[in-house]
């Protein structure tokens, strides 16, 4: 587990991420009893109204008791992008911080987290040869050495990065070698034009936590149980009502969401019921696999496991205790227990 690096000049934010069905929302809600946090949803399906069961949206009673920002903010007919999220989440974070609370961003849409962490700017596409050369040098001399190289050509970006923040060091040095201009200069130029957002780490000290399985079979079982539970709760009826609206189609981002796509195909007569169930479970497992692939390469991540290597599930109390122990190492709130 990584140590938390404290910058007293920046307010804290907590990013709680992980694959689907790992209990992220339950942990976020539990943290409210220990820290003055306010939740921001990081989920590409929860933004849509009328999509409740298939998105595993918290019950209305829970949302009334524990508000989540960025839930039910779009009609399913309206696309919502990572750029939309980055703008909306940043504004929500500013408002929460101004009220003396800590933004707690929770969800599994990794692209949304990435848009906040890396910022949004028009940067050149990656050059595999340059990237491989930087990685090769780092493998021999270490990322602190490469960080020092970056400091020579782009001191502003280097000053914002920990010497072991490999991914962002690599990208910044790559951009300089491709364009001959510092990444910080490109971003400032685009910010002045209103066409870019800086990384959120310029404004917040972000503690990144991931809930992860050690035994993949445990996650697969939880995914199947949850999908079948959605069917028992009326998922078919929910999607039927969406289909009957007449203004939605399967190519919309909302209807491409895992589970919704498969149910739409069933209701349209493309597949049978059993095939829909199987495909829905498989698609959710594939989503979890993609989320885990993102996280394997994630920088500055604090891992909390939901199970043992043998597949024994940790209790909610165990997971909360591990999280509190982690957060207890950072002075995110003086007098943490309320």
Rounded Rg: 21 Å
Number of domains: 2
Q: Helical residue percent? A: 40-55%
Overall geometry: globular
User: CATH class of the largest domain, please?
Assistant: Alpha Beta
The helix tally amounts to 14
Main sheet, how many strands, which sense, barrel?
6 strands, parallel
Structural class: alpha/beta
**Helix/strand order, N-terminal first:** EHEHEHEHHHHHHEHHHHEH
Low-pLDDT segments, ≥5 res: 334-338
Produce a short descriptive summary.
The protein has 14 helices and 6 strands. The chain is α/β, with parallel strands linked by helices and 338 residues long.
Element layout with pairings:
Elements: E1 12-17, H1 24-31, E2 37-42, H2 60-65, E3 68-69, H3 82-98, E4 102-107, H4 110-118, H5 128-141, H6 143-153, H7 155-159, H8 166-179, H9 183-192, E5 205-212, H10 216-233, H11 235-244, H12 260-267, H13 273-296, E6 301-305, H14 316-327
Parallel strand pairs: 1-4, 1-5, 2-3, 2-4, 5-6
Helix pairs in contact: 1-14, 3-4, 5-6, 5-8, 6-8, 10-13, 11-12, 12-13
Q: What does this entry look like structurally?
A:
It is a single chain. The two termini are 26 Å apart. The protein has 338 residues and is of the alpha/beta class. 49% of the residues lie in helices and 10% in strands. The protein has a six-stranded parallel beta sheet with strand order 3-2-4-1-5-6, with helices on both faces. It has helices at residues 24-31, 60-65, 82-98, 110-118, 128-141, 143-153, 155-159, 166-179, 183-192, 216-233, 235-244, 260-267, 273-296, 316-327; strands at residues 12-17, 37-42, 68-69, 102-107, 205-212, 301-305. The protein is globular.
